[in-house]
Design a protein that fits this description.
single chain, alpha/beta, 10-stranded parallel sheet, Udp-n-acetylmuramoylalanyl-d-glutamate--2,6- Diaminopimelate Ligase, Chain: A, domain 1, 346 residues, flat, UDP N-Acetylglucosamine Acyltransferase, domain 1, 2 domains
């Protein structure tokens, strides 16, 4: 597929400088792009490549000042990074829209309901009373349990397992190997020291416009629902326990774990390898630094914390500064002790 500069500019509301009929057929990094490719410049560190790139079309910020002539066609926009992301998304949509039909072998129960323009990859298993809405794409080796609902335009990548009774919203993307609706970690201690499993009879609800990375696990609720609210973005290798709620537009980086019944607010940012204990609440807009361990609720919105146990980010920085100065402080204390001792002796 080829696109002209004028077509691209129309999509991202950009202003062209150069040949509006210049065409591109693929994407490339500005430092490596070749003729016929589209690149972008958002980070000033890469500005030098703008003057030597082989890319046919480059998207740049409106504020970018040219230090010398360029050979490529430029498209100026308010935010080059966001504009490039829009184009990548549009390109991906075109590719996925072309995927239609049912590959063989695939098993689809007679009671399952299928929408229009869907794609079901080979070795996919669709169980009883499943509802698959329009334009859903299920890649090979996906398992969909009984009574699952999958909303329109959702993409489920290879090897995803969705257990019974779970609900997946519209425009959701779930990447390879993720498990939705496995049992929560519920075991009741017995008098003899053993543990009796507590049946997990709830489900998982994933609302619209959520993206979930590869090999993430989201446990079903003991009773009720584990909920991932609209717009949330979850990275690879996460553990979301039973009855957890993740708020709207919250982002969580890789290898983090959230224990049972914890409620995470809206627009929260959680770094990699963060651990949250169970039954706490994280206020809207909170920021939790990587490798932090959160052992109690964050009640004040827009609070930033770090460390394990996590505490106020600014206070943590002050503590780190003090720790770095401890050897010097020790010398000063010893000197003061020596002076005091001499004064006492006199």
């Amino acid at each position: 597929m080829q696109f002209s500069a004028i077509q691209i500019a129309a999509i991202i509301n950009g202003k062209i400088e150069g040949d509006p009929n210049e065409t591109v057929a693929s994407f490339g990094k500005i430092e490596e792009a070749q003729k016929g490719q589209l690149a972008f410049l958002a980070n000033p560190k890469y500005e030098d490549f703008l003057y030597c790139t082989q890319a046919s079309v480059v998207i740049i910020n409106e504020s970018q000042e040219l230090k010398q002539p360029v050979s490529c066609t430029l498209i100026r926009v308010k935010d080059a990074y966001s504009a490039f992301a829009i184009l990548l998304d549009k390109y991906q949509q075109i590719q996925t829209q072309q995927m239609q039909g049912i590959e063989e072998p695939a098993y689809i129960h007679a009671t399952a309901k299928k929408g229009e323009n869907i794609f079901i990859g080979a070795f996919t298993y669709i169980s009883e009373k499943v509802i698959i809405d329009n334009n859903v794409k299920l890649f090979p080796n996906v398992f969909v349990g009984n009574n699952v609902i999958i909303g329109e335009n959702t993409i489920i990548h290879p090897g995803v397992k969705i257990y019974h009774d779970c609900v997946i919203g519209k425009n959701v993307v779930i990447h390879a190997g993720t498990v939705i609706g496995s049992d929560g970690f519920g075991f009741a201690p017995q008098a003899d020291g053993s543990y009796k499993k507590v049946p997990q009879i709830g489900n998982v609800v994933i609302e619209d416009n959520v993206e979930i990375g590869s090999n993430t696990t989201i446990d079903r609720a003991t009773i009720g629902s584990t909920i991932i609210k609209a717009g949330a973005k979850l990275d690879n290798l996460l553990q979301i326990a039973h009855n957890v709620e993740i708020g709207n537009n919250t982002v969580i980086a890789a290898q983090s774990g959230i224990s049972g019944s914890t409620k995470v607010g809206n627009n929260v940012m959680i770094g990699g390898q963060v651990g949250l204990v169970g039954h706490i609440q994280i206020a809207d807009g909170s920021k939790i630094n990587a490798q932090s361990g959160v052992s109690k609720s964050i009640k004040i919105p827009n609070t930033a914390v770090t460390g394990s146990p996590a505490f106020d980010y600014t206070a943590a920085l002050r503590s780190q500064a003090i720790n770095r100065n401890l050897p010097e402080l020790e010398k000063r204390i010893k000197e003061l002790e020596r002076i005091i001792k001499e004064l006492i002796e006199k």
